[in-house]
């Protein structure tokens, strides 16, 4: 069996969150979606499950973190160019996201940070390993 990752996120407004993730380039898999959850596909191995608070609560006894005021994780998406980073960032901002830091340029990697409408934090980055310090 191929290894995959499913990132589960508690969201307040399922439709708003689906619009945001669609704007970033995710597509919806209706097979794993209903009125309480939307499966958003990044690649054949990476999925984000958007779950209403009630649905998310069924999987844990812990309270759901308020990711608008507290950080629970930093999720990162590798992209193929800085132009792709900038385009996806613009789409995400237009869909209700918030840029929380200025772009960071590490020479070999450029990175931008966006929060979804619930405050889940995503790092969008492009890395050129030929520019990595010590590479020939």
Structure in words:
This protein is of the alpha+beta class and 136 residues long. It has one domain: Roll (2,3-Dihydroxybiphenyl 1,2-Dioxygenase, domain 1), CATH 3.10.180. The protein is 21% helix and 35% strand. It is built from 3 helices and 9 strands; from the N terminus they run E-H-E-E-E-H-E-H-E-E-E-E. It has helices at residues 14-24, 53-57, 82-94, and strands at 5-11, 27-29, 37-43, 46-52, 74-79, 98-99, 104-105, 109-115, 121-127. The strands form 2 sheets. Strands 5, 6, 7, 8 and 9 form a 5-stranded mixed β-sheet that branches. Strand 7 (104-105) and strand 8 form a beta hairpin. Helix 1 (14-24) packs antiparallel against helix 3. The protein is globular and about 50 Å long. The termini are far apart.
């Amino acid at each position: 069996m191929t290894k995959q990752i499913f990132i589960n996120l508690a969201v307040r407004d399922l439709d708003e969150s689906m619009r945001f993730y669609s704007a970033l380039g995710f597509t919806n898999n209706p097979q794993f979606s209903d009125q309480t959850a939307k499966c958003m596909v990044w690649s054949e191995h990476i999925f984000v499950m958007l779950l209403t608070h009630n649905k998310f609560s069924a999987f844990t006894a812990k309270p759901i973190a308020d990711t608008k005021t507290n950080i629970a994780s930093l999720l990162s998406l590798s992209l193929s160019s800085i132009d792709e980073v900038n385009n996806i960032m613009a789409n995400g901002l237009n869909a209700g996201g918030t840029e929380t830091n200025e772009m960071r340029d590490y020479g070999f990697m450029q990175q931008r940070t966006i929060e979804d409408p619930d405050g889940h934090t995503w790092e969008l980055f492009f890395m050129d390993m030929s520019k990595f310090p010590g590479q020939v």
